[in-house]
Amino acid sequence: MPLPKAELHLHIEGTLEPELAFALAARNGVELPYADTEELRKAYQFSDLQSFLDLYYELMAVLRTEQDFEELADAYLERAAAQGVRHAEIFFDPQAHIARGVGIGTVIQGLARALDRSEEQHGVSTQLIMCFLRDQSAESAMETLEAAKPYLDRIVGVGLDSAEVGHPPVKFREVYEAAAALGLRRVAHAGEEGPPAYIWEALDVLGVERVDHGLRAMEDPELVERLVRERVPLTLCPLSNVRLRAVDVLEQHPLARMLAAGLLCTVNSDDPAYFGGYVGDNFHAVRDALGLELEQMRTLARNSFEAAFLEHDEERRGRYLAEVEAYEFGAG
Ligand code: HPA
Ligand SMILES: [Zn+2]
């Protein structure tokens, strides 16, 4: 039995496995520029974030109907459950779909079909976080927030993703103010490739409650001190960092130093179909590469539930935390 955990940094479009991509391409009459799944997998060699994003956006062409989004989410939830995920806060990128003529309602309602039966079917509770593409304009982000208004009961918060460098958080100040006024929680990718200054800005200008990645926080001791003092969660994605060359090898990942510094770190999979593993695989990889003790693994699991947006259901958070405390490593 795997360690119970929450996944808080997961792009649903990044769970599109090559087999499902080809099945959906065939069903929707979409031509993919790869002969088969093997040739597609060979393209999964990335030099940085942008080289990944190019493929990530290209493959999305196969996602067209509610059923496609439902099957995508269902496949993720099944895999996540098998790796101990009890609660998932799932990112989606509406602008990437709207640009292809797929409406935000199709995306949200399709995902919702899978999410609505997830607890019963997979034992995984879920929430959705709508991300804005930071390499598109602030106006486009604001239009997207407007388009999401009929579906706000399905969305717990907003996030910020895509190409980071050159697109500082401050660009989205007004959008985040509008999101906060609608009662939405706020997170943002910061410090994946971008500098620590982007993490400060995400906190101070956007008012984020969690930082997605935050990998480069360790370059700035004052920032670390603040993140520790305010217990701001960081959603780290170790296998992603290696695949996108943010760190050279997993053995050099700062996670162990970040935990030792007192940061509220969580471990997540980001885009598991592309980066070689789901969240349990990330847990095992850091344990092995960094020599984490079992108590540190338990801390990571505990942190994930502490950092989850479960304030509306503290009873549930308490149940999940109790599962972590009761977990016996090596049993079963
Ligand atoms: O890791 C990521 N970083 C930024 N944007 C993204 N969109 C999907 N995955 C990512
Ligand atoms: Zn991400």
Automatic annotation (TrEMBL):
Keywords: Hydrolase, Metal-binding, Nucleotide metabolism, Zinc. Binds 1 zinc ion per subunit. Its EC number is 3.5.4.2. Substrate binds at residue 271. It catalyses: adenine + H2O + H(+) = hypoxanthine + NH4(+). GO terms for cellular component: cytosol. The record marks 213 as: Important for catalytic activity. The keyword Zinc applies. This is Adenine deaminase. The lineage of its organism: Bacteria, Bacillati, Actinomycetota, Actinomycetes, Kitasatosporales. It comes from Streptomyces himalayensis subsp. aureolus. Gene3D superfamilies: Metal-dependent hydrolases. Pfam families: A_deaminase. The keyword Hydrolase applies. InterPro entries: A_deaminase_dom (IPR001365), ADE (IPR028892), Ado/ade_deaminase (IPR006330), Metal_Hydrolase (IPR032466). Transmembrane segments: none annotated. The active site is at 192 (proton donor).
